[in-house]
């Protein structure tokens, strides 16, 4: 391992684009070399699981079982077991669909958009944020699947020649959804798996048992770290990031079209696409933080997912939260300014009607509570950050409840007004979807590399030859940190 | 092909025969990036063609040090993306904007009357067309990368070497094939040793 000396630093620092005024801590803390990184990430898989993992798995698997039983009950009995009615035909299943699909967006933002912006701090968190995307989209896909009324016919949504002589109706936003979410899931899966190939090869080369050797061997596809391979791999990764970026923005835009293209007051609004995307990133970052806080503690990787990472995520959560708050304010302003009495009534109904409590909950969780993160002390406090993330997750769920339930119960004509209350099956299934999500996630952290080891190695100072402009800022940060240590 | 003929075409066959023809090549281990980069330059300048560097992460500057060409992968992705776009346009047009006579019922397009909108309503078809463009491009990037890298490949001489297991963890390697015209077992080993290799091993095929 090369050690860092001051004479080595004189070369790279000539880069004038480096921000000299702000001193940032290094991305990987401690006297770490490549093997330390490999060891601490692989230890999550190779060591015995902490007791907390087993307890969490027990709870998650039980909830997942509940989901399966309730889906069976639904299929055997019919959609009457839900609280759905006319006018609220969408109810909990679509609230949950939008909620889960939104959560996935933060994973793609971290893995693709931050990659294009060369945000090197993303390397420690991108892998499990991507995993979170995959699992959240799986949870999301359940809902439209069982909500179609006859859940054994979902293949009718796909374009294939059939005896009915029918094809999908491509002008419908609901069909756009099939293509958008389907593509999103496929591309996210490819991106996630491709990023994992070198790390699975690391696990293959470290495994002691025959079963692990074969399993990791098959999934690593015979990766051997050849430079020609790395070259094409990096190009492919960059291209996938560039493709995933417009894709992720399109997915929640298309989801928002399900609402915005209709005529319902409270839905028929041109602000929906950007507002939904910002909300998705907001809620998604809350979930990443929610997962990162216990993981880095249980598996002792706090020197890889550092306080700097957590703080950056808190900042993104705060800023997207402000965008979302601005969107709420804009919606109310436009409703007032439009002089459209249906629109005005609907918005008045939000805070005076029967679901005013849900609206209050939303405002507190999404707009007020996250403001604590303005303060450096508070956002660096893991308990406060955890609570803020829980609050945002609840708030984002209520946002979808607000949009769907509150708008549908108050239509144009009072004779078609209605009310909605979920049944125990609705609530059980929603809890069950969390069970599925956490079951998949817990299995992931024990069997697959949760941190992108190859990328973390590449952002360490010793990974770069002298004069490589890429590393200039990082070497600089590290030297500053060492200076600070020497002075104190 | 006779033995003599091969020996003339391929001078190293002769060498291998002297050693028992069991060697696939040599593998040299390096401790850090800078030694690897300078060693790669030396190997490149010595005129080797069939050799490769292995590292636990992509090393910046190694492509230049090895004299590699830029990959053609982006062109494959572009072609796939255009195919996806064209498929999307054809799919939406054929299924929603046509209904040709004389085609079997199940394969014929279906004309939906939706609130008086034209059958060929291109703006409304853009989302599926866009998604198919992205989907095909992503397949192109992923499977194109694997195909150009000839993966999956579950057998390779370097993977049999125990020392090489650290190539995916923390060490750097250069492997030179005996099939390279410039290969000469003792001279090549000397070159790698003077370039800073910490260990050099011979690989079985």
Tell me what the structure shows.
The complex is a heterodimer of chains A (488) and B (205). With 488 residues, chain A is mostly helical. Chain A has one domain (33-153, 183-445). Chain A contains 17 helices and no strands. In chain A, helix 9 (272-298) packs antiparallel against helix 10 (307-338). Chain A starts with 5 loop residues before the first helix and ends with a helix. The relative contact order of chain A is 0.18. With 205 residues, chain B is an alpha+beta fold. Chain B has two domains: 20-69 and 153-203, no CATH class; 73-148, no CATH class. Chain B has helices at residues 3-9, 11-19, 33-45, 62-66, 73-97, 122-148, 185-194, and strands at 25-30, 51-54, 172-177, 199-203. Chain B starts with a helix and ends with a strand. The chains are: A mainly alpha (488), B alpha+beta (205). The interface between A and B is large, with 74 and 71 residues.
Keywords, please?
heterodimer; A: 488 residues; mainly alpha; B: 205 residues; alpha+beta; 2 domains; four-stranded antiparallel beta sheet; 7 helices; 4 strands; 10% strand; disordered N terminus
List the helices and strands and how they pair.
The complex is a heterodimer of chains A (488) and B (205).
Chain A: H1 6-9, H2 34-46, H3 51-77, H4 91-116, H5 126-147, H6 173-206, H7 210-219, H8 227-260, H9 272-298, H10 307-338, H11 341-352, H12 356-368, H13 376-379, H14 382-409, H15 424-447, H16 453-458, H17 469-487
Helix pairs in contact in A: 3-15, 4-5, 4-8, 4-9, 4-14, 5-6, 5-15, 6-7, 6-8, 8-9, 9-10, 9-14, 10-11, 11-12, 12-14
Chain B: H1 3-9, H2 11-19, E1 25-30, H3 33-45, E2 51-54, H4 62-66, H5 73-97, H6 122-148, E3 172-177, H7 185-194, E4 199-203
Antiparallel strand pairs in B: 1-3, 1-4, 2-3
Spans where pLDDT lies below 50 across 5 or more residues of chain A: 1-22
Number of domains of chain B: 2
Residues in helices of chain A, as a percent range: 55-70%
**How many beta-strand segments of chain B?**
4
Low-pLDDT sequence parts of chain B: 1-20
Order of helices and strands of chain A: HHHHHHHHHHHHHHHHH
Summing up helix and strand content along with how strands pair, one would put the structural category of chain B as: alpha+beta
The outline of chain A comes out as globular
The biggest sheet of chain B, with number of strands, parallel, antiparallel or mixed sense and barrel status, is: 4 strands, antiparallel
The figure for the number of domains of chain A is 1
């Amino acid at each position: 391992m090369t050690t860092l000396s001051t004479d080595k630093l004189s070369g790279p620092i000539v880069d004038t684009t480096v921000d000299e005024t702000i001193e940032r801590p290094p991305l990987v803390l401690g006297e770490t070399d490549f093997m330390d990184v490999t060891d601490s990430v692989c230890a999550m898989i190779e060591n015995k699981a902490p007791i907390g993992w087993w307890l969490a798995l027990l709870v998650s698997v039980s909830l997942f079982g509940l989901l399966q039983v309730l889906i069976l009950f639904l299929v055997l009995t019919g959609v009457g077991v839900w609280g759905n009615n006319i006018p609220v035909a969408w109810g909990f299943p679509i609230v949950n669909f939008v909620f889960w699909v939104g959560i996935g967006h933060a994973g793609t933002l971290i893995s693709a958009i931050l990659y294009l912006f060369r945000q090197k701090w993303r390397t420690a968190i991108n892998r499990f944020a991507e995993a979170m995307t995959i699992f959240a989209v799986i949870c999301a896909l359940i809902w439209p699947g069982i909500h179609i009324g006859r859940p054994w016919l979902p293949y009718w949504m796909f374009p294939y020649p059939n005896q009915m002589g029918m094809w999908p109706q491509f002008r419908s936003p609901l069909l756009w959804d099939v293509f958008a979410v389907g593509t999103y899931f496929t591309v996210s899966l490819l991106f996630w798996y491709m990023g994992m190939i070198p790390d699975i090869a690391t696990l293959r080369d470290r495994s002691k048992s025959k079963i692990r050797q074969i399993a990791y061997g098959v999934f690593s596809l015979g990766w051997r770290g050849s430079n020609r391979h790395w070259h094409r791999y990096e190009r492919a990764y960059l291209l996938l990031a560039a493709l995933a970026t417009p894709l992720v923005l399109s997915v929640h835009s298309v989801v928002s079209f399900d609402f915005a293209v209709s005529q319902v007051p409270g839905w028929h609004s041109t602000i929906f696409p950007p507002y939904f995307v910002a909300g998705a990133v907001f809620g998604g970052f809350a979930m990443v933080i929610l997962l990162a806080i216990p993981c880095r503690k249980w598996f002792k990787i706090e020197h890889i997912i550092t306080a700097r990472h957590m703080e950056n995520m808190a900042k993104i959560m705060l800023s997207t939260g402000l965008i979302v708050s601005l969107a709420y304010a804009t919606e109310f302003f436009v409703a007032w300014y439009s002089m459209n009495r249906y629109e005005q009534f609907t918005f008045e109904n939000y805070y005076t009607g029967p679901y005013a409590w849900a609206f209050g909950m939303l405002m507190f969780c999404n707009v007020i509570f996250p403001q604590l993160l303005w303060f450096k002390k508070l956002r660096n406090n893991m308990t406060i950050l955890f609570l803020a993330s829980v609050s945002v997750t609840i708030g984002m769920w209520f946002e979808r409840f607000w949009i769907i339930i509150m708008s549908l119960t108050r239509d144009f004509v009072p004779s078609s007004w209605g009310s909605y209350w979920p049944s125990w099956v609705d609530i059980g299934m929603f809890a069950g979807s969390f069970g599925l999500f956490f079951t998949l996630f817990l299995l992931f952290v024990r069997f697959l590399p949760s941190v992108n080891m190859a990328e973390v190695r590449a952002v360490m100072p010793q990974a770069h030859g002298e004069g490589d402009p890429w590393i200039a800022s990082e070497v600089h940060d590290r030297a500053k940190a060492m200076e600070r240590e020497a002075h104190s | 092909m006779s033995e003599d003929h091969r020996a003339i075409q391929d001078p190293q066959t002769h060498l291998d025969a002297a050693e028992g023809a069991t060697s696939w090549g040599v593998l040299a281990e390096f401790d850090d990036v800078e030694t690897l980069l300078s060693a790669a330059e030396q190997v490149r300048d010595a005129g080797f063609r069939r050799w490769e560097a292995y590292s636990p992460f992509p090393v910046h500057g190694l492509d230049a040090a090895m004299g590699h060409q830029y990959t053609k992968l982006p062109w494959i992705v572009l072609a796939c993306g255009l195919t996806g776009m064209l498929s999307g346009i054809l799919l939406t047009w054929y299924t929603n904007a046509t209904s040709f006579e004389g085609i079997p019922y199940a394969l014929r397009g279906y004309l939906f009357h939706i609130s008086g909108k034209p059958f060929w309503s291109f703006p409304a078809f853009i989302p599926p067309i866009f998604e198919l463009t992205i989907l095909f491009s992503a397949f192109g990037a992923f499977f194109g990368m694997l195909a150009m890298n000839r993966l999956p490949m579950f057998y390779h001489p370097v993977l049999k070497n125990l020392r090489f297991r650290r190539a995916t963890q923390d060490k750097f390697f250069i492997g030179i094939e005996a099939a390279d015209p410039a290969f000469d077992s003792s001279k090549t080993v000397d070159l790698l040793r003077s370039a800073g290799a910490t260990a050099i091993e011979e690989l079985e095929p």
